[in-house]
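Q: What residues go here?
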């Protein structure tokens, strides 16, 4: 009979102990590998044995048999199975961002993990253990601006066995901007060309977003619940993204939009729906998938509300989720890659409060997220780390009260419209004011109230401003650029 608790694993060893059999001369231990079928046999005069070559990832079946003084077999034990160790899954990153001189890290739970080991490597140095925590987050307050750090995290079980490394997370620490200030900038004078409200086959009714791609405009329109495709003069080409009559669930209303860098695919978010849909350029539905609730919020009554979407140069989509105040990065086919920001209503949500519009620079991979009610713009690198953030200045020039639509201009500057002030201004990626746009009569106001989105034709430089209040799309030509008055 086996002693209670045996056989027992101890790393690469299996400890075997059994009750002695009166009159036994010795014992024979038989081990069968349940994966390969290989059998090994040992003999010992004592009622115990250490199997010192038992790989922890393999399962075995042990039987002990007593041998009598004349060599005949005596009683044998019941077969006892020893399971191989199943390594814990490596953790997945759940969110990360920089705030001042700290890096805040969040990862997802791993089943059977009792704590986590967080490792950090600096450039030119091997990884070192930074902390062992039972929580799913950590604030690294020991970073220095200008340095690059690589983080990995491992799950640890009750026997202190670690999982493999998570995917590496690279963070370059930069100083967060507090405001753009007002330095040197230029005045860009615009000449109105076309005011687009309606035409043969369509009428704009509360348009919400606009994108330029290869000579045409894609406009999401709340009133018609569709995406309208127009030429620069406002002539109607076609429409798509309307709810199919036989769609089995809630379709929603087209809201945010972006066109892939190659112009072949169009991604659309839908108001009153957690769905993201990808269409071909001519409007055929290619993909239809749902943004999930964050890990730990599966039972929450809050339904994710994707607001806007941006294509990264790697083919991934960046989506702002207004409900949980996160940015979600999604691979083709709908597989979630990671999430940036701690979801509300967690105890310490952040850094986003009300993420709305989003755009990406196809050349640098930087992603720009508008937090409308906080009047801030967050800048993410291609890995999803928040590298800086900036707000409008307190002066009239560069001021942001309710930033909304955003796009990367043809010169690499970030164009931002303000929904309250109805202004258009250009900023460097770091948040420095570079340009203020004016109508040809000198006014900041463009004759359009409630401006919500902006797009630029990279060939001609023409600017398109979308007014939800006026249900109009305004096209302007750059008339001249002149030094700003001091």
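A:
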């Amino acid at each position: 009979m086996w002693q209670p608790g045996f056989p027992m694993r101890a790393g690469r060893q299996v400890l075997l102990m059994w009750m002695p059999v009166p009159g036994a001369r010795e014992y024979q231990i038989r081990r069968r590998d349940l994966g390969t079928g290989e059998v090994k046999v040992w003999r010992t005069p004592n009622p115990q044995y250490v199997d010192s070559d038992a790989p922890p990832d393999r399962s075995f079946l042990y039987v002990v048999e007593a041998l009598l003084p004349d060599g005949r077999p005596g009683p044998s034990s019941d077969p006892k199975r020893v399971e191989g160790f199943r390594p814990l899954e490596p953790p997945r990153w759940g969110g990360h961002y920089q705030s001042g001189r700290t890096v805040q890290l969040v990862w997802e739970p791993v089943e059977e993990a009792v704590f986590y080991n967080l490792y950090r490597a600096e450039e030119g140095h091997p990884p070192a253990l930074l902390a062992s925590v039972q929580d799913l987050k950590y604030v690294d307050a020991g970073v220095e601006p200008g340095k690059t750090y690589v983080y990995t995290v491992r799950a640890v079980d009750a026997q202190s066995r670690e999982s493999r490394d998570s995917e590496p997370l690279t963070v370059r620490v930069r100083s967060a901007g507090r405001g753009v200030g007002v330095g040197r900038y230029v005045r860009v004078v615009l000449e109105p060309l076309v005011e687009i409200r309606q035409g043969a086959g369509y009428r704009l009714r509360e348009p919400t977003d606009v994108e330029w791609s290869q000579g045409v405009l894609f406009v999401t329109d709340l009133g018609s619940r569709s995406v309208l495709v127009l030429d620069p003069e406002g002539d109607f080409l076609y429409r798509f993204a309307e709810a199919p009559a036989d769609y089995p669930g809630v379709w929603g209303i087209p809201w945010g939009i972006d066109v892939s860098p190659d112009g072949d695919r169009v991604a659309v978010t839908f108001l009153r729906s957690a769905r993201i849909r990808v269409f071909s350029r001519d409007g055929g539905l290619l993909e239809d998938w749902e943004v999930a609730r964050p890990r730990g919020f599966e039972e929450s009554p809050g339904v994710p509300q994707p607001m806007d979407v941006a294509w990264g140069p790697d083919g991934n989509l960046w989506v702002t989720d207004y409900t949980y105040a996160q940015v979600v990065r999604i691979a083709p086919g709908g597989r979630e890659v990671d999430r940036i920001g701690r979801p509300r209503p967690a105890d310490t949500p952040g850094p986003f409060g009300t993420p709305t519009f989003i755009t990406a620079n196809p050349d640098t991979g930087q992603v720009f997220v508008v937090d409308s009610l906080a009047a801030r713009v967050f800048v993410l690198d291609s890995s999803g780390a928040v590298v800086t953030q900036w707000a409008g200045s307190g002066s009239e020039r560069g001021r942001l009260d309710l930033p909304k639509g955003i796009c990367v201009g043809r010169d690499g500057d970030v164009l931002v419209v303000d929904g309250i002030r109805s202004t258009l201004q250009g900023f460097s990626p770091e948040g420095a004011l570079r340009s203020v746009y004016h109508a040809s009569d000198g006014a900041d106001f463009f004759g359009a109230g409630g401006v919500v989105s902006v797009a630029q034709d990279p060939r001609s430089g023409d600017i398109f401003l979308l007014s939800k209040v006026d249900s109009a799309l305004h096209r302007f030509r750059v008339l001249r650029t002149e030094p700003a008055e001091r």
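A: Context that may help when evaluating the design: The mean pLDDT is 89. The chain has three domains: 8-82, 93-172, 186-483.
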